[in-house]
Write a structure and sequence with these properties.
The complex is a heterodimer of chains A (about 150) and B (about 240). With about 150 residues, chain A is an alpha+beta fold. Chain A has one domain (about 20-150). In chain A, about 15% of the residues lie in helices and about 35% in strands. A five-stranded mixed β-sheet of chain A has the order 1-5-2-8-9, with helices on one face. A four-stranded antiparallel β-sheet of chain A has the order 4-3-6-7, with no helix packed on it. In chain A, a hairpin with a 2-residue loop joins β3 (about 55-60) and β4. Chain A is globular and about 40 Å long. With about 240 residues, chain B is α/β, with parallel strands linked by helices. Chain B has one domain (about 25-235): 3-Layer(aba) Sandwich (Rossmann fold), CATH 3.40.50.10610. In chain B, strands 1, 2, 3, 4, 5, 6 and 7 form a seven-stranded mixed β-sheet that branches. The longest helix of chain B is centred in the C-terminal third of the chain and has 22 residues, at about 215-235. The radius of gyration of chain B is 20 Å and the shape is elongated. Classes of the chains: A alpha+beta (about 150), B alpha/beta (about 240). At the A-B interface, α1, β6 and β7 of A face α3 and α4 of B.
């Protein structure tokens, strides 16, 4: 099998995995926990804001990866509360891919709170949007809203 | 070009940052009896250093000859495509500027081992660019000597055959300048590269950049700062490192 075939196969597998990957992911080990017991980190949908701001996609917490280019990046990640080292993939749609970068930050995450991931070219953060799902659901894509509502 | 030739070219380009030579093109001026005497007799030696650049971390997307597909696949499988920027790592783990650290440790060594009591470490680093014309220090200091330090490059690069293992490298330059006439009495480098004997002490797996709050990265950068200050101190004091 030549390199091109291998590459195409890898691309196809990656694309299928990324497309089929759940957009809501638990970024912790063990059994499912209640929403009130975890912090929910999310990426706002593209149309949430009128400007073309960079989007921060969840990649890893405390050095453990839950989103990659191969498996896709979750739109919503449920993380255990406490002090956490969060990594996001900061993507700017109107700039070349070479401008995209991975950024790190520490955050103190509280159980039951929703955090919107944000980034600029140099720094990233998790903005505490409180505990009310109603106050943030307009920032989420429809498919995610349905999953979150479950 | 043959496949082998293409690979050779690709590997040599990948190795370039690891093989870097500090102060390429500048002339080493070794310590001699006169400069050694000037060092001891100067009423004051101002130690100045410059802000260092960020850690340059090699990423598959920067590798020559790889298409977008290969970059995604190789980068993700190896993990090297998901590394944060050097800026982000330094900021979040509060890594000190290597210029600050090397200068501080160098002064400690020169005071302790060279019994130089005339060293004055400037409290703050100077902004770049670095002045090649050494006489520019006359406007800042009326007399004495200036020991100037600059860490020109720092980074981490993977080996061409193993994209998960990174080697941290650093290159710095120091000059001893007589302020009165701007003469460079001594000039030398510390060049801590991927093929030095101690390279294994500066290696880390791609997963170790972020693990344990950057403990391994902190350890390696601290080791490299110490090594650079040791090399420069030994050169100034004419000892073998």
């Amino acid at each position: 099998m030549n390199t091109l075939t291998l590459g195409c196969t890898a691309l196809l597998v990656s694309a299928l995995m990324a497309c089929s990957a759940p957009k809501v992911r638990n970024a912790y080990e063990g059994p499912e926990r209640a929403a009130s017991d975890v912090a929910t980190l999310f990426t706002a949908k593209k149309s949430a804001y009128p400007d073309q701001r960079p989007r921060a996609l969840f990649s890893a917490v405390n050095g453990k990866h839950y989103g990659t280019a191969v498996v896709g990046y979750p739109t919503v990640a449920r993380v255990l509360p406490g002090e956490a080292l969060v990594k996001v993939y900061c993507v700017t749609d109107d700039l070349p891919a070479s401008w995209d970068k991975f950024l790190l930050f520490y955050a103190t995450l509280r159980a039951g709170h929703f955090y919107e991931l944000a980034c600029d070219r140099f720094t990233a953060s998790a903005i505490d949007r409180g505990t009310s799902y109603e106050s943030i659901h307009h920032l989420l894509a429809d498919a995610i809203q349905a999953k979150q509502a479950q | 070009m043959t496949t082998g030739g293409t690979n050779m070219r690709r590997y040599s380009l990948l190795l370039a940052p690891a093989l870097l030579l500090a102060c390429a093109g500048c002339q080493i001026i070794p310590m001699n009896a006169d400069s050694s005497a000037a060092l001891k007799e100067a009423p004051v030696i101002q130690v100045v250093r410059y802000h260092s650049g960020p850690i340059n971390i090699t990423n598959p997307k920067d590798a020559p000859g790889l298409g977008p597909l290969s970059v995604v696949v190789v980068g993700s499988v190896a993990g090297s495509g998901e590394l944060p920027t050097g800026d982000a790592l330094a900021r979040v783990f509060k890594l000190p500027d290597p210029g600050d650290e090397v200068a501080r440790r160098l002064v400690e060594k020169l005071k302790a081992e060279g019994r130089l009591g005339n060293l004055r470490l400037e409290p703050n680093p100077l902004p770049r660019p670095l002045p090649e014309d050494a006489s520019q220090y006359r406007a800042r200091y009326p007399s004495g000597l200036v020991l100037e330090l600059s860490i020109d490059t720092q980074g981490a690069s993977y080996a061409p055959t193993n994209w998960r293992t990174y080697t941290y490298y650093m290159a710095g330059r120091a000059r001893l300048i007589r302020v009165s006439d701007g003469k460079v009495l001594w000039l030398d480098t510390c060049n801590i590269h991927a093929f030095a004997e101690d390279a294994a002490k500066r290696q880390l797996d791609v997963s170790e950049f972020e693990a344990n709050n950057g403990a391994k990265l902190k350890e390696i950068t601290s080791y490299s700062n110490e090594r650079c200050s040791r090399i420069l101190a030994d050169k100034i004091l004419a000892k073998a490192s």
